[in-house]
Amino acid sequence: MIEKVFLGPRRYWLLLLTLGVFIAAGLFFYIQQSSEGLAVTGMSHSVSWGLYIAQFTFLVGVAASAVTVVLPYYLHDYKAFGRITILGEFLAVSSVFMCLLFIFVDLGQPFRILHVILYPSPTSLMFWDTVVLFMYLVLNLVIGWTVLSAEYRGTPPPSWSKPLIYLSIPWAISIHTVTAFLYAGLPGRHLWLSAIIAARFLASAFSSGPALLLILCRVARRYTDFDPGNRPERALGVIITYAFSAHVFFMLLEVFTAFYSGIPSHRAPLVRLFWGWGDPASLTPYLWISTALALAALALLYSPARRRDSGLFIASIAVFASVWIEKGFGFVVGGFIPDPLERIPAYRPTLAEAAITAGVWATGILIFTLLFKITAAVRRKD
Amino acid sequence: MELTRLEFLNKAWRTGLVIFGGASFELVSGTSLTAGGQPAAAGKRLAMAVDVRACMKAGQCVKCINACHRGHNVPAIPDVKRAITWIWRDDLERAMPGVMDSYSGTAFHGAKPVLLCNQCGNPPCVRVCPTGATWKRGDGIVMMDQHRCIGCRYCMAACPYGSRSFNWNDPRRYLAKKLINRDYPTRTKGTVEKCDFCAERIDRGREPLCAAACTEKAISFGNLHEDGSAVRKALADRIALRRKPELGTDPAVYYLL
Prior knowledge:
The complex is a heterodimer of chains A (about 375) and B (about 260).
Chain A: H1 10-36, H2 51-64, H3 67-75, H4 85-106, H5 115-118, H6 125-153, H7 161-184, H8 197-223, H9 231-261, H10 264-275, H11 284-302, H12 309-334, H13 351-380
Helix pairs in contact in A: 1-13, 2-4, 2-7, 2-8, 2-12, 3-4, 3-7, 4-6, 4-13, 6-7, 7-8, 8-9, 8-12, 9-10, 9-11, 10-11, 11-12
Chain B: H1 5-29, H2 31-34, E1 46-51, H3 52-57, H4 63-71, E2 87-89, H5 92-95, E3 114-116, H6 124-128, E4 134-136, E5 142-144, H7 154-158, E6 165-166, E7 192-193, H8 199-202, H9 209-213, E8 219-223, H10 230-236, E9 240-241, E10 253-256
Parallel strand pairs in B: 1-10
Antiparallel strand pairs in B: 1-8, 2-3, 4-5, 6-7, 9-10
């Protein structure tokens, strides 16, 4: 099956080459970061986590969102997802792989990463996050590959794959809940210290993940002969609509509590996120862009435009971008501002940081492309 | 040497028992084994009291900071955003938000007492560390193992006091060769470090460098659980505040007003 990745049209090789260039650039800057230290990033004493950990958080959500196609297909026998369930699983594989890479590039001593396993620390949520993420990667890789192999041979999937598939459903919820607990249990970080973080994470994951899947389906339909048809897209559109509405609603709940209670420490990070406090590297523009995109997405998803393919496509892009900014940047960086001494530190990712981030994304897209290539070839039966 | 199948299985079984048994013992016993063999001193809790008035009287004095940073090979990094600080002076109203307003405590406006790791009784940094690189000793000192730290900086996100520093680049670059204290290790890039109440001096029966260096006698140190210790005497007849006690961290550094 794996040999399918070696045959493809010119377009395919061009895509691989482009991704290779981004990966090489990322690697170049990573070597620089390895020798110089994390000083090549924009992070500092006050903002000690930046783009890497924020992107990690966002991608755990994308990985978990596989459940939005796996659950209806396997548990409720929703046949329309039959053609794209495997894409959801392979999207999860690529996303978890990116998550692990983002953790790796964020470490000051990356070659000591196995200390997490060597000295297991059950009180640390990061220990549990590593464990559940790694297991989730294995689960999805095994499930996706087994189901596809069975399809390749024209046999039904082996019976042992069923319990694994059912296990992957609560497991998907668990990875994002544990990731939310990384933040929601820290004293003194008021943007994060909220019981609703796990629920917010799941809502934003179950909207941005299916939105990405819909975008990928559309790209596949346009540029390859893989055509899952309209029906799964319609169903994804419904999931996106409800999950994204919940996400926006949960955000408004945070705003209510922070502002109506009037407690300065709860209010401060939100004020800073949306109105800035007059420093040049303010996050303000990004968060307003995210908000504008969210409103535009909601307008599209609830208007007749959602019935048009283009309307749904644009709404998906808006949902994905809105969550990517809010969760993949604002939430993590905003938690550090103001810092424990009530100062407003500046944070802006550097070129090296951006290039390494792009390199990790290119690696994830490469993995997805190869897995998709195999899937499409198996479906074509060539 | 030839091993029969039975012998091999027997040996593998015993080895497995030792490895997993040891690991699970470490999980259950928590701090006692990771404490690097330090015996838990029964009932001991080391604490510090900083006299804010005395510290104010000394003006711009940085004797304690110099003594600490020199003694521990803490580099002087010019970029303040990436500086390593074990002990530093900062605004009282920033350290303890909300304790003063425009009318009360006006005598303390502009005060910049020394701040350091609070050696919390319930340290969030220890709770979150994924490798046990930071742990609490029996006498309450929150320790740091530079060799085990993977540099994930979760402890920095967890610390509500900003008391932990990360080596964003090679700290040795900023150390003057002549001033290096050969009796204390220097560090490498990519790990977190912080004040540890001079554990290396305490183990030799001496008080922390900052307390020893203070000519204003602003820093009292000792066992909080011992009547008549220096820190207890200092706390007895003064009102003292701790930083953000409402977070449940139980800081061991008091500020006398």
